[in-house]
Automatic annotation (TrEMBL):
Annotated protein name in UniProt: Calcium-transporting ATPase
Membrane-related topology note: Multi-pass membrane protein
GO cellular component, one term: plasma membrane
Pfam families: ATP_Ca_trans_C, Cation_ATPase, Cation_ATPase_C, Cation_ATPase_N, E1-E2_ATPase, Hydrolase_3
Polar residues biased stretches: 1158-1171
EC code(s) of this entry: 7.2.2.10
GO MF: ATP binding; ATP hydrolysis activity; calmodulin binding; metal ion binding; P-type calcium transporter activity; PDZ domain binding
Catalyzed reaction equations: Ca(2+)(in) + ATP + H2O = Ca(2+)(out) + ADP + phosphate + H(+)
Length: 1171
């Protein structure tokens, strides 16, 4: 038997000897972990002689764990593998370059440049020139004509630069994302017992034979077998697709699998398989290996998916693997389950991305139209002038020269298109998001999904937990009610009867998770460290304050001696532990929310520790005099009780009968102080137009008191504080279904939801999101830390999980992880989100001004002077600096506090507001006036030769160089104007805080000087004098003054201005989104256009088929078949390329349609691909 991580060993023989050291091999353990429930137990008992025997074979101690000896750990890693699943290979830089080259505009430019290059080397004999109607070139033009190739080469060079920049950005984005992933993985730690001590170990360090502590909320990092468990329930849906929780116990089913979630209970397991040998690892490897295999199998011509092939060792990332044939029936079941699972509610993709793509598509269409018209006008003008007015014949020898002219026109047209399409947009979004994500790390926000960052800027509501987020999660017992006495400070142990004291100490020490404990402070004079569940730590602290030692009790009653444990969950809201009494019979200790436990008590201990009856009226009296006063001070009340079973063993599974007739020992009030910085953060949220709601499992009075301290509710406001039960009564109909109308009456005023279950939280979030009250759809952020918060975190627009107190399950479901669990970090996230939105708008305002001006100049210039004043290479330079560098400069503006002083934008607010439209048009007017003045009167103003109507290969003129230089400098100063989009006057405010911006502006200016002075022929530039430079600069600086004039004009008076870049309306979404799992606004926009493309293609193809059929006299059925199946066109998605392959149904050759924009997948709705 070879071993999967064989590459780590020098030879096979070594493996044998190593495995001889342990009583089982990797493959045996793998086979063992593939068994379930009773099969697994039989195999353990028959083959290994029980779990304890298996531990000794693996040379581990079930109580003490491994020794932690480095050589032993290394040996285990060599024999059984590391707990690490190799990631899929990242795309190489060359692959990304190839992807960037797929851009349609670039391809067209490349073709045009190559044609231009080829034709420039063709020298027709000189004497035909006159017949061809071209000006005769003078001798000095000969040298210039030789340099005709430069333009083509320069275009190619510019294309290469653009491609490299794009590829580099994609590469760095990918790298950043991988870095983020590995950071998330590194931060995941797990409790493992080594040498008798519980330590937190990074998941990758876990080895086979480790004894791991598992508790509620854990995501299991490896496969293992249960050694000891309390009421353990596991959610195995990630592996099996079954949503029901699976009970785990030594008698019924001890098999624990990696990647599954602990939903209840606790326990210890021995690790039996890690990394690629664990069940999750096997699935990952199958996925990874099958990708590589498909390519191999295509070469070999084998049928893919034959089970025998699965046994062959496959290599992925240099690791040889052995894959078990998966049970085919199980596979089929899983597929069916997965189909069911995917029918989740539709989640909309990022709002910003949607708005941007709609805008880009609209701009693209306009650009395409303009460039087509430009080319058409140029060609018509040329043809009419030469062949109609001058009546020249078309001579064969002149053809290459005419073609050169046509190519020149074509290049001008393409240049117009290149400048019209804002390629910098996706780049700006990427840079802005990547930059924000990086900076947000410093503000304690670990962003898992990029678009969450920008969605946060639109947030209108935050549903926050109380404990740990708004409060410090440092709990201490400050009041107690014991034996008819309400102590406002912690009583001294002498004040209590020994019997009662004993019950309190045992009731707390035994009936709390043994993972919760209090450790000495790290620094001298610091507070003791609380490890584990904070409420339990508060109670253990109470025991310590009573001068008692809980360790002694736990040593006397170790975890193995606990007879039965009912662990805490959101339904029970209590925890109970049963132990056997030395004198026979059983005692059960219970603790939990005071009103819940008191309802189950029928006796209470008095001052002397005697048992007294506890009737309903006593309970009401106690709630009124003890619990409510505690709660109104913001204390959390916990009741401690017990029950003895002396008449034989009851049925433990019948919980309702076990958890009654309790005897109340004490009620304690636990204080969890509000974080000092929270009230200020909540005030900021209110100013920013964000409603904060508190959703907590705590008592309503406690919740209201804390909400008042935080400033969520202010006295005199019209607001609601509800308990979960009351909330459900108000929003559900007789059948128990949630009614949106009823919910809509409640949520706008609701501020506190207390004693709520995770379902209530999910209902509230879903209700707010689906609500149609108000003009905007609400954007909801939710915080969560518990396993049961998963659904609400997933449903919310942005889910925040707690980095410290959060369970792995919550982190898995979230979009952003708060590394310090602090509410203020959420406010920072809002600020960054709004900043992303503003950065994109700044860039758009700048970009669109460039586009409008460049397109109009190229278009009118071409129509009037037959030559664009801005040459192709100059346009590409403008495109490069304006797109790439401006996106870098404007997208990295740091956020300011002023962002929190305005309302959220909302989902439907257009990207380009009226103010921005005013700026864009205003600056365009200034720039166009200047440029047209220079084109038509510049030569007289500067007293230089005119550059208009120059022959084909004429040298660059000073006239046109001045135009190009002025254009670039105007853009440069307009970049400074674009830093403000809300009509602020001071465009320089905070400019030195952004070093990137300053260096980009400076760098662009220096590059421009170099291009003009030394660019020569490739850039169609010639040297300028100092006075000409000063004039250009003067006109450029005029942009800043003009900006001040524009901001003086009130936007309200310009009613005719239209906004652009709207979000998608709800009606449009529902109409188009049938059958889609995720609504992507961008795809919708493209879909409409594409469906028309494909219908048109289909029609043409059908007509061709009809003609062919008649010509060949073949049967007519094939054609009809095509028409019926036309609806099932299978459009395959080539990743980020710009070609859509349409696979026709009857004719074998696939038609390739260059789409104007990179296409989304458009598979038919039935989900089957048509051959």
């Amino acid at each position: 038997m070879t071993n999967p991580t064989e590459h780590a060993l020098p030879a096979n023989s070594m493996v044998e000897s190593h495995e001889g050291d342990f009583g089982c091999t990797v493959m045996e353990l793998r086979k063992l972990m593939e068994l379930r429930s009773s099969d697994g137990i039989d195999q353990i008992n028959v083959h290994y002689g029980g779990v304890m025997n298996l531990c000794s074979r693996l040379k581990t101690n079930p109580v003490e764990g491994l020794s932690g000896n480095p050589t032993d750990l290394e040996k285990r890693k060599q024999v059984f593998g590391q707990n690490f699943i190799p990631p899929k290979k990242a795309k190489t830089f060359l692959e990304l370059v190839w992807e960037a080259l797929q851009d349609v505009t670039l391809i067209i430019l490349e073709i045009a440049a190559i044609i231009s290059l080829v034709l420039s080397f063709y020298r027709p004999p000189g004497e035909e020139n006159e017949q061809c109607g071209l000006p005769v070139s003078s001798p000095e033009d000969e040298g210039e004509a030789e340099a005709g190739w430069i333009e083509g080469a320069a275009i190619l060079f510019s294309v290469i630069i653009v491609v490299l920049v794009t590829a580099f950005n994609d590469w760095s984005k990918e790298k950043q994302f991988r870095g983020l992933q590995s950071r998330i993985e590194k931060e995941q730690k797990f409790s493992v017992i080594r040498n008798g001590h519980i330590i937190q170990l990074p998941v990758a360090e876990i080895v086979v034979g480790d004894i791991a502590q598992i508790k509620y909320g854990d995501l299991l990092p490896a496969d293992g077998i249960l050694i000891q468990g309390n009421d353990l329930k596991i959610d195995e849906s990630s592996l099996t697709g079954e949503s029901d929780h699976v009970k785990k116990s030594l008698e019924r089913d001890p098999m624990l699998l990696s990647g599954t979630h602990v939903m209840e209970g606790s326990g210890r397991m021995v690790v039996t398989a890690v990394g690629i040998n664990s069940q999750t690892g096997i699935i990952f490897t199958l996925l990874g290996a099958s990708e590589g295999e498909e390519e191999e199998k295509k070469k070999k011509g084998k049928k893919q998916g034959v089970p025998e092939n699965r046994n062959k060792a496959k290599t992925q990332d240099g690791v040889a693997l052995e894959i078990q044939p998966l049970n085919s029936q199980e596979g089929i079941d899983n597929e069916e389950k997965e189909k069911k699972v995917t029918k989740l509610p539709k989640k909309e993709k990022s709002v910003l991305q949607g708005k941007l793509t709609r805008l880009a598509v609209q701009i693209g269409k306009a650009g395409l139209l303009m460039s087509a018209i430009t080319v058409l006008i140029l060609i018509l003008y040329f043809v009419i002038e030469n062949f109609v007015i001058h009546r020249r014949p078309w001579l064969a020898e002149c053809t290459p020269i005419y073609i050169q002219y046509f190519v020149k026109f074509f290049i001008i047209g393409i240049t117009v298109l290149v400048v019209a399409v804002p390629e910098g947009l996706p780049l700006a979004v990427t840079i802005s998001l990547a930059y924000s994500v990086k900076k947000m790390m410093k503000d304690n926000n670990l962003v898992r999904h990029l678009d969450a960052c920008e969605t946060m800027g639109n947030a209108t509501a935050i549903c926050s937990d109380k404990t740990g987020t708004l409060t410090m999660n440092r709990m201490t017992v400050v009041q107690a009610y014991i034996g008819d006495t309400h102590y406002h400070q912690i009583p001294s142990p002498d004040a209590l009867v020994p019997k009662v004291l004993d019950l309190i100490v045992n009731g707390i020490s035994i009936n709390s998770a043994y993972t919760s404990k209090i450790l000495p402070p790290e620094k001298e004079g610091g507070l003791p460290r609380q490890v584990g569940n904070k409420t339990e730590c508060a109670l253990l602290g109470f025991v310590t304050d009573l001068k008692q030692d809980y360790h002694a009790v736990r040593n006397e009653v170790p975890e193995e001696k606990l007879y039965k444990v009912y662990t805490f969950n959101s339904v029970r809201k209590s925890m109970s532990t049963v132990i056997e009494k030395p004198s026979g019979g059983y005692r059960m200790y219970s603790k939990g929310a005071s009103e819940i436990i008191l309802r189950k008590c029928n006796r209470i201990l008095d001052k002397k520790g005697e048992v007294m009856p506890f009737k309903n009226k006593d309970r009401d009296e106690m709630v009124r005099t003890v619990i409510e006063p505690m709660a109104s001070q913001g204390l959390r009340t916990i009741c401690i009780a017990y029950r003895d079973f002396n008449d034989g063993e009851p049925t433990w599974d019948n919980e309702s009968e076990i958890l009654t007739e309790l005897t109340c020992i004490a009620v304690v009030g636990i204080e969890d102080p509000v974080r000092p910085e929270v009230p200020e953060a909540i005030a900021k949220c209110k100013r920013a137009g964000i409603t904060v709601r508190m959703v907590t499992g705590d008592n309503i009075n406690t919740a209201r008191a804390i909400a008042t301290k935080c400033g969520i509710v202010t006295p005199g406001d019209d607001f609601l504080c509800l308990e979960g039960k009351e909330f459900n009564r108000l929003i559900r109909n007789e059948k128990g279904e949630v009614e949106q109308e009823k919910l809509d009456k409640i949520w706008p005023k609701l501020r506190v939801l207390a004693r709520s279950s995770p379902t209530d939280k999910h209902t509230l979030v879903k209700g707010i999101i689906d609500s149609t009250v108000g003009e905007q759809r609400q954007v909801v952020a939710v915080t969560g830390d518990g396993t049961n918060d998963g659904p609400a975190l997933k449903k919310a627009d942005v889910g925040f999980a707690m980095g410290i107190a959060g369970t792995d399950v919550a982190k898995e479901a979230s979009d952003i992880i708060l590394t310090d669990d602090n509410f203020t970090s959420i406010v920072k996230a809002v600020m960054w989100g709004r900043n992303v939105y503003d950065s994109i708008s700044k860039f758009l305002q700048f970009q669109l001004t460039v586009n409008v001006v460049a397109v109009i100049v190229a278009f009118t210039g071409a129509c009037i002077t037959q030559d664009s004043p801005l040459k192709a290479v100059q346009m590409l330079w403008v495109n490069l600096i304006m797109d790439t560098f401006a996106s870098l400069a404007l997208a990295t503006e740091p956020p300011t506090e002023s962002l929190l002083k305005r309302r959220p934008y909302g989902r439907n607010k257009p990207l380009i507001s009226r103010t921005m439209m005013k700026n864009i048009l205003g600056h365009s007017v200034y720039q166009l006036t200047v440029i047209f003045f220079l084109v038509f009167a510049g030569e007289r103003f500067f007293d230089i030769d005119s550059g208009r109507k120059a022959p084909l290969h004429s040298p660059p003129s000073q006239h046109y160089t001045i135009i190009f230089n002025t254009f670039v400098l105007m853009q440069l100063f307009n970049e400074i104007n674009s830093r403000k989009i809300h009509g602020e006057r001071n465009v320089f405010a905070g400019i030195f805080r952004n070093l990137i911006f300053c260096s980009v502006v400076l760098g662009t200016f220096i590059s421009q000087i170099l291009i003009v002075e030394f660019g020569g022929k490739p850039f169609s530039c010639t040297k300028l004098t100092l006075s000409q430079w000063f004039w250009c600069l003067f006109i450029g600086i005029g942009e800043l003054l003009w900006g001040q004039i524009i901001s003086t004009i009130p936007t309200q008076s310009l009613k005719f201005l239209k906004e652009a870049g709207h979000g998608t309306t709800k009606e449009e979404i529902t109409k188009d989104a049938e059958g889609l799992d995720e609504i992507d606004h961008a795809e919708m926009e493209l879909r409409r256009g594409q469906i028309l493309w494909f219908r048109g293609l289909n029609r043409i193809q059908t007509q061709i088929d009809v003609i062919n059929t008649f010509q060949t006299g073949a049967s007519f059925k094939g054609v009809l078949k095509r028409q019926t199946m036309g609806q099932h066109l299978d459009v395959r998605h080539v990743p980020s390329s710009s070609y859509v392959t349409v696979a026709p149904v009857t004719s074998p050759p696939a038609t390739s349609v260059p789409a104007a924009v990179s296409s989304p997948t458009l598979g038919n709705q039935s989900g089957q691909s048509v051959p």
